[in-house]
Specification:
The protein has 372 residues and is α+β, with helices and mostly antiparallel strands. It has helices at 6-23, 33-40, 73-77, 97-104, 124-130, 138-146, 150-168, 170-173, 180-194, 255-274, 281-292; strands at 27-30, 55-59, 65-69, 83-87, 110-112, 135-136, 198-208, 227-237, 240-241, 244-250, 301-305, 312-317, 329-332, 335-339, 342-345, 348-353, 356-359, 370-371. The strands form five sheets. It has a six-stranded mixed β-sheet, sandwiched between helices. It is globular.
């Protein structure tokens, strides 16, 4: 059982095989959750068990080969992958190494993602025993994942709609005097009630005219009149994420908060105008930076790719000259400094189309909403 029909995964492998032929690679070795799932459809929460490694080989010619612990055999066999080899894991001396070595035998050049955001999800000792000298396949894999299929975009539109519906309930979820950690819990519950399968990421902050950071765990401090509450969600559905936030003033919005919010809204508008096929990520970043003016919060990037991970390549940053093409899904995430130690940030999710960007999220209100 997979989130998409077998043809979706077959098409991904076919594209990978064409890219491998052009790059002179004979096989790809995948071992992280996202990469194994991308090519096989194998989705499970059991990746949280770090004691067990999982492997998928995508050959330049032929069908993928899965080398997995026996606890995952039934689920892997329910995917479109037919060659599934298993061992009893964890094993005290050979945790799948010899089985994986045999599966790789005969392949000359083996590629693995080795660049930014990559990870080796097996012990370094076992990797050395494997005896493989891989080449970097980061660019190859990212070039495949940059452009989403119609099925992927449909899944992402669905989870963005879930998040938008949960945010629309803000007036009944949050109020003055409510503890910040209780607000976080209420929002998680709303996301699940609206149809999210998982809510692994909820961050935010609250404070007068803004907040000090956007990643700290929430405390029990009560929301006060005049506070700006921001919540940012990375809920998922069928293995695909939304990633956007919303700001709300509790009871009253100061002129400072209103101006900061409006600046962010206009910077997002500038990003929407710039996010068109043929433009570069750096040009979208420049458009938002210009709209922020002196209010630029100093964040290195103002958005990023989105898909099977909460944050994917590319970055909307001054250093990123990747050209936008239809099918790319991005976040627009301008931020500003409001005062000493205080900031504000907003975020939308879009898909690039031939005619320009299409919002997947329900667009934030042009003026700072007041609730409670």
């Amino acid at each position: 059982m997979t989130d998409f029909p077998p043809a979706e995964y077959e098409a991904r492998v076919t594209r990978a095989q064409g890219a491998m032929a052009a790059a002179g690679m004979d096989a790809l070795l995948m071992m992280t959750e996202v990469e194994v799932r991308y090519f096989s459809g194998f989705r499970t929460a059991f990746w949280q068990s770090s004691t067990r490694p999982w492997f998928l080989i995508v050959p330049r010619i032929g069908a993928p080969v899965a080398v997995v612990p026996e606890i995952g055999e039934a689920l892997m066999r329910s995917t479109w992958v037919r060659d599934v080899r298993v061992w009893s894991s964890p094993h005290p001396s050979d945790d799948g190494v010899s089985l994986l070595r045999d599966a790789l035998a005969g392949f000359g050049v083996v590629g693995m993602p080795m660049g930014r955001a990559s990870a080796l999800r097996m012990s370094m000792l076992d990797f050395r025993r494997l005896g493989v000298e891989p080449v970097d396949a980061s660019a190859l894999v990212w070039n495949l994942r940059f452009v989403k299929s119609a099925a992927e975009i449909e899944a992402m539109a669905a989870i963005c709609a879930v998040g938008s519906r949960a945010f629309a309930r803000a007036g009944s979820l949050f109020s003055g005097g409510m503890a910040l950690d209780a607000a976080f819990r209420a929002f998680r519950i709303a996301l699940l009630e609206e149809g999210a399968e998982e809510v692994p990421y909820v961050v935010g902050g609250a404070g007068a005219d803004g907040y000090g950071d956007v990643i700290s765990p929430p405390g029990a401090t009560a929301l006060r009149r005049g506070d700006v509450l921001m919540l940012d969600t990375g809920a998922s559905l069928r293995g695909y994420f939304c990633d956007f936030d919303r700001n709300f003033a509790i009871g009253h919005a100061s002129d400072t908060a209103k101006r900061a919010y409006r600046t962010l809204w206009e910077a997002t508008e500038a990003g929407l105008s710039a996010a068109r096929p043929g433009r570069t990520c750096s040009e979208v970043h420049a458009a938002m930076t210009a709209a922020l003016g002196d209010a630029d919060g100093g964040i290195g990037r103002l958005g990023h790719g989105l898909g099977t991970e909460l944050t994917e390549e590319p970055s909307l940053a001054a250093f990123e000259d990747r050209v936008l093409v239809p099918g790319m899904v991005l976040t627009l995430e301008p931020s500003i400094g409001v005062g000493p130690g205080t900031m504000m940030v907003t975020e939308e999710n879009i898909v690039v189309t031939e005619d320009g960007p299409r919002l997947l999220t329900e667009r934030a209100a042009p003026e700072l909403p007041v609730i409670g």
